[in-house]
Amino acid sequence: MSIEKSLLNVLLISIFGRRYNCQYIYNSQIPYIMKKILFLAVVTLLTVTMSAQKKAQITFKSDVVDYGEIDYGSDGVRSFEFTNTGDDVLIVARVYSTCGCTVPEKPEAPIQPGEDGVIKVKYDTKRPGPIRKTISVYSNASEVPYTLKIKGMVKPEASANGQ
Prior knowledge:
The protein contains three helices and eight strands, in the order H-H-H-E-E-E-E-E-E-E-E. It is an alpha+beta fold. A hairpin with a 2-residue loop joins strand 7 (about 130-140) and strand 8 (about 140-155). The radius of gyration is 30 Å and the shape is rod-shaped. The N and C termini lie far apart (about 105 Å).
């Protein structure tokens, strides 16, 4: 048996897990085997290439802001701080809330790798009662929006005569 046929046999055993009649494969199956080897090489190359691409990554210091118990009509502005922990520029494309009583403000400038950013959220504190709202952050870090939450309680309005 020639060295070429021996190497083909070793290759076939490693790919398919069993021994083949080398003469039959050598004569009739080489195009099929070469296609299979080429396909495996292309898949491996694509996998390595895809995993090496740069990507932005958004990491929040906290994804929940607790207002606690706040007075009616008080300052309702809070901030969500985050860092771009990826190796590409982070662009916050869109930030929205589940209701009109919560107004989020996204950073306008792109966030470079390693830099920090802030998303400000203003809640209308002239609505007494519990606060339970969700803010969705769309960015180039993920196709799925990142979810932030605010919670707390707005005290009822104090009456005019101090009761």
